[in-house]
Amino acid sequence: MDYNYRHSSRRLTIFAHFFGVLAFILMLIWLLHYRGGLQYDSYDNYDRVFNVHPFLMYCAFIFLAGEAMMAYKTVQASHHSQKIAHMVLHLSAFILGVIGISAVFKFHDMAGIEDMYSLHSWIGLSTFCLFGMQWLFGLFSFFSPAATPETRMRVAPLHRAAGRALLYLSICAALTGIIEKFTFQRLKNEREARLMNFMGLSILLFGIFVDLSVALARDSSPPY
Predict the structure, then answer these.
(1) CATH number of the CATH domain containing 124
(2) Per-residue pLDDT, 60
(3) What is the mean pLDDT of each run of 10 residues along the chain (224 residues)?
(4) What is the dihedral of CA 185, 191, 195, 196, to 10 degrees?
(5) Tally of domains in the chain
(6) How far apart are CA 210 and CA 127, in angstroms?
(7) CA distance 223 to 188
(8) In 10 A of CB 180, how many CB atoms?
(9) Residue 146 phi/psi, 5° resolution?
(10) Which residues are in the Cytochrome b561 domain (predicted)?
(11) Which stretch of DSSP H or E encloses residue 116?
(12) For residue 9, is it within any domain?
């Protein structure tokens, strides 16, 4: 029975990777073909500066965060290697997130738009801060020599639950961001609108399959 759960988990990771890559491709098509490209240091086209934001935030807090969760629970490797991959992927996500956050604040300054006025921005910045706290919590709880095995076992369920919640918060931020951009641009291009809808759906399905694969994974190594 345990084998069946592991087998199901591995199959679910295939779907997760499919929708994760699909969302990545759709986002690139959207930003490059319909939105004019990406350029953080652009001085004459602030829309290109903005476009860095959704791209990096998806790559960081959804795709890399999801990959980090699957790397720890579904990849066949030593427990230490799983922990290192999990930590490094999350650290990479946080670094990309810093750049993505700074891009949208830079865009607001260039376009004369007020900061932190929307539900999307509230959810997004809260998720960013909680993500950083979660990473530090994991670093000190699972990599610090001062943390005892008993402490690690006690905090592991909380750490796992918080990670899954943060993934869904990130997806919520992404979907509200897509809706906000859709409304702000008053899109009349049906092809672009459909592409954005499929992109949002792919992001949501990626998160669902990541969560299911992690939930069904059975790891014989200790949970810390």
Answers:
(1) 1.20.120.1770
(2) 98
(3) 63 96 98 96 94 98 98 87 95 98 97 95 98 97 90 93 97 97 81 95 98 79 52
(4) 20
(5) 1
(6) 18
(7) 50
(8) 14
(9) -75, -20
(10) 15-215
(11) none
(12) yes
Q: Which residue has the tokens 């930590």?
A: 87
Q: Is 119 within 8 Å of 176 (Cβ atoms)? A: yes
Residues in the chain: 224
DSSP code for 142: H
Q: What is the 3-state secondary structure (H, E, C) of 31-96?
A: HHHHCCCCCCCCCCCHHHHHHHHHHHHHHHHHHHHHHHHHHHHCCCCCHHHHHHHHHHHHHHHHHH
The answer as to whether 203 is a domain residue is yes
The answer to whether position 222 is within a domain reads: no
The boundaries of the domain holding residue 42 are 2-216
